[in-house]
UniProtKB/TrEMBL annotation:
Cellular component annotations (GO), alphabetically ordered: peroxisome
Protein name per UniProt: Luciferin 4-monooxygenase
InterPro entries: AMP-bd_C (IPR025110), AMP-bd_C_sf (IPR045851), AMP-dep_synth/lig_dom (IPR000873), ANL_N_sf (IPR042099)
Similarity comment text for this entry: Belongs to the ATP-dependent AMP-binding enzyme family.
Assigned keywords, A-Z: Ligase, Monooxygenase, Oxidoreductase, Peroxisome
Domain called AMP-dependent synthetase/ligase: residue spans: 2-168
MF annotations from Gene Ontology: CoA-ligase activity; monooxygenase activity
Domain AMP-binding enzyme C-terminal as annotated: residue spans: 218-294
Domain of life: Eukaryota
Species this protein is from: Anoplophora glabripennis
């Protein structure tokens, strides 16, 4: 789908390099393996959730030895997935990359033509490679704006000649810092070898199976429930699907008998399947906010992950 920049960049890359590109009407993991055998496909790009589907559907009697490269991206990747892909497709080099539509393509990946970098991906399976040479980039403390050094976690920011001009019909000034770098919304760090590691997302929008989840939309639905006084939606990391939406709500007085399941069902009946609160609903006494009344979304998420909610 051209909804994602990966489809555009791969089409242009295929044209520029004189490659044939095999495009299916609908993704079918078993059919993909048969197509690799039939057309001797050498390279595939998969999201982690699709990669798991391929591993489950793969038949051992199908010849996939033509496959040279498997690129993984679009959502968090686990070491387990990387190891299983290497075992299932021993002829292929498995690489993890990092990209954003705002950047018009790939931001970081290891160079498949450099044996040392390919080895680094094996040694550092959770690494997203090295930032492409055309980028200016930095890791910044999002609170103090201090530029950070190796192994210090902060927001990844970047600048490149062909980055986006802004979001369509929206005020995009907040998407850039004072030096014109795009704020990725991703917490990251780099090590002494300039290998980039994406740790977490700090901006509100997150991905479920590649689809954008807009917390404000789900929060608006939650707030239409008569029992809900305040609501915040966060993304809970999931090994297969990227993130699962979770609702955290504070109830109005007199609705103490309302359960998390009641609220989850209420939302489920009003949204498409990909927008469901798959991580459930938590009921709290109050939603944590700043002194100016803004929801401390990141703090709420950490409280859930730490078991404090």
């Amino acid at each position: 789908s051209l909804y994602w920049i990966s489809a555009v960049s791969m089409t242009l890359k295929s044209i520029a390099e004189g490659c044939a590109r095999v495009v299916c009407k609908q993704f079918d993991p078993a059919a993909m393996c048969r197509l690799i055998e039939k057309y001797k496909i050498t390279s595939v790009f998969l999201g982690p959730y699709l990669a798991y589907d391929v591993l489950d559907a793969r038949q051992k009697n199908i010849d996939t030895s033509s496959l040279k490269y498997i690129s993984i991206g679009g959502a968090p990747v686990t070491k387990k997935l990387m190891d299983e892909l290497r075992e299932a497709f021993p002829s292929a080099t498995v690489l993890q990359g990092y990209a954003q539509t705002e950047a018009s393509g790939m931001i970081s990946i290891f160079n498949v033509n450099d044996p040392k970098e390919v080895e680094l991906q094996t040694i550092k399976p959770l690494c997203s490679g090295k930032v492409v040479a055309e980028y200016n980039w930095k890791i910044v403390d999002p609170v103090t704006e201090k530029v950070l050094g190796p192994n210090e976690r902060g927001e990844f920011r970047y600048k490149i000649d062909y980055q986006m001009n802004g979001y369509y019909k929206m005020d995009s000034s907040s998407a850039y810092d004072s030096e014109g770098f795009i704020k990725s919304g991703d917490i990251a760090y780099y090590d002494e070898e300039n290998c980039l590691f994406i740790v977490d997302r700090i901006k509100e929008v997150f991905l479920y199976k590649g689809w954008r989840i807009f917390p404000a939309v789900l929060e608006g639905i939650l707030l239409t429930h008569p029992a809900v006084e305040e609501a915040v939606v966060i993304g809970i990391p999931h090994e297969l699907n990227g993130y699962h939406p979770m609702g955290i709500v504070a109830l109005n007085k007199g609705y103490e008998d309302v359960t998390p399941e009641d609220i989850e069902l209420y939302v489920r009946q009003r949204v498409s399947d990909d927008q469901r609160l798959r991580a459930g609903v938590k009921i709290v006494g109050e939603i944590t906010k700043t002194v100016t009344g803004k929801v401390r979304r990141y703090d709420m998420k950490q409280m859930v992950l730490n078991g404090d909610i």
